[in-house]
Amino acid sequence: MKSAGKNDSFPRGPKYLHVAKRLRMNIENGLWAPGAQLPVERELADTLSVSINTVRRAVGELAAEGIVQRRQGAGTFVTPVADPPAEPAGALGGRRLIGVLVPSTTYYYPRVVDGIQRVLRDAGVGVVLASSKYDLDVERDELRAMRNSGVQGLLLVPNLHIMSDPQGYVDDLRELPLPHVLVERRPPAPEPDDPTSYVGTDHGGGVCLALRHLHGLGHQRVGHLGRRRTGTSALVAQGFDDAAALLGLDVVDGAVARQERWAPAEIAAYVRSCAAARVTAVFCHGDRDAAALVVEARRQGLTVPDDLAVVAYDDEVAEVGDVPLTAVSPPKSEVGALAAQLLLRRMEAGDDALCHRVEIQPRLVVRASCGAAQTSVPT
Fold first, then answer.
1. Distance (Å) of CA 213 to CA 116, 155, 222, 361
2. Phi, psi angles (nearest 5°) of residue 285
3. What secondary structure, in 3-state letters, does 313-333 show?
4. By the number of CB atoms within 10 A of the CB, which of 66, 106, 191, 286 ranks highest?
5. Of 184, 187, 181, 201, nearest to 354 (Cα)?
6. Phi, psi of 7 (to 5 degrees)
7. CA atoms of 204 and 243, how far apart (whole Å)
8. d(Cα 132, Cα 251) in Å, to the nearest integer?
9. What does DSSP say about strands 256-259 and 222-227: parallel, antiparallel, or unpaired?
10. What dihedral angle (degrees, nearest 10) is formed by the CA atoms of 98, 102, 105, 110?
11. For 269-312, what is each residue's pLDDT tens digit?
């Protein structure tokens, strides 16, 4: 098994500047509109896997730039812009509108929305953006509000993983009087002629890319610290099982574990189990659990990556930790852009629109945590 040499993959500059860059990008992409309130510091810290003090310094940087305003006792708000000239009557002066419904505007989906907005902006199409916050009641209300706002098409990321009848929900979407495309979701139990169009990440392919990389580094006993009941957890888990079988990896009792949430004590027990079973690498879904695993492994006297290599899935905050994480990086912006292009074509074709089922394979971004030179493994 290869060991790590000198590591040049640590992020350059103070961590708070990297967080400030991420927040600035979200604001520029329209996820937090002018005048909108930012999430509270605790939520941002949890989402980005950093301390509250790091978030506070990052927000201070944006405040110094005039991008946000802190209001005593109220919170932090995106700096409002001057009122634009009055628009003619009608939806944005008659301009076409697309409704975009995502589960979150702080994790994973900002880059998806960025790809959507880039395509629609170039096409002269406006966006009505809403977040369901992983709440089915909110999702229902936001979908109704977008339809009432006069949108001509919908890009939807429904919370299928927490629905009692997810396929029934997808089937019911056909009754909408608007063209729609699913984004990072697909029908869970479709009939062969299901006409639902979707664009998403090939999660199984991304997991296989990661395990093949670890196998190439000499790892044979690879664990999986997984999740349950997330939008992608079932596909990632199946991808791990399939790739482990394909590559002939040793599946060790206790080293493949999946939970809805991982508490610190549970991660500590998992590390002990992996050490006892001589597991040399762990694939984690996703970044925050992987970062916690690295911290706990080092606390128990293991070195990362020499004693335990770690690869994460998501690549949202993988580069921020003390040991930057090798990560499967879903093509979020590309997924959003392609979904927007597909919806525009469906709007133009009307009843003659063809069904498209598109999956894009992720990249593997190699950093310090797996013991190989920093690179990006192409798809």
1. 31, 34, 12, 15
2. -120, 100
3. ECCCCCCCCCCCCEEEECCHH
4. 286
5. 181
6. -100, 125
7. 8
8. 37
9. parallel
10. -70
11. 999 999 999 999 999 999 999 999 999 999 999 999 999 999 99
* Distant-in-sequence contacts of 48-53, Cβ < 8 A, 24+ apart: 48/19, 48/22, 48/316, 48/317, 48/320, 49/287, 49/288, 49/291, 49/317, 49/320, 49/321, 50/15, 50/19, 50/317, 50/320
Distance from C-alpha of 310 to C-alpha of 44, rounded to nearest angstrom: 24
Q: What predicted TM-score, i.e. pTM, was given to this entire model?
A: 0.80
Tokens of 81: 């812009």
Amino acid at 166: P
Omega of the bond leading into 115 within 30 degrees of 0 (cis): no
Range from 10-19, 127-136, 185-194, 264-273 carrying the lowest mean pLDDT: 10-19
For residue 274, what are its two tokens?
């992996």
d(CA 120, CA 175): 25
Q: Which two tokens stand for residue 270?
A: 């998992």
Residue 210: exposed, middle, or buried by beta-carbon count in 10 A (0-12, 13-18, 19+)?
A: buried
The CA distance from 57 to 21, in Å, is 12
| pLDDT tens per residue, range 204-232 | 999 999 999 999 999 999 999 999 999 99
Asked if residue 331 lies in contact with residue 360, where contact means CB atoms within 8 angstroms, the answer is yes
Per-residue buried b or exposed e for 47-81, using 16+ beta carbons within 10 Å of the residue's own CB: bbbbeeebbbbbbebbeeeebbeeeeeeebbbeee
Strands 126-131 and 153-156: unpaired
Residue type for position 94? G
- Radius of gyration over every alpha carbon of the chain, rounded to an integer in angstroms: 22
Please, what's the b/e burial string for 308-347 (b: 16 or more CB within 10 A of its CB; e: otherwise)?
bbbbbbbbbbbbbbebbbbbbbbbbbbbbbbbbbbbbebb
Neighbours of 7 (CB within 10 A): 15
Distance CA 180, CA 344 (A): 10
DSSP letter at 220?
A: -
User: Which of 83, 96, 162, 147 lies closest to 124, judged by CA?
Assistant: 96
Taking the C-alpha atoms of residue 232 and residue 185, their distance in angstroms, rounded to an integer, is: 8
**DSSP class of 61:** H
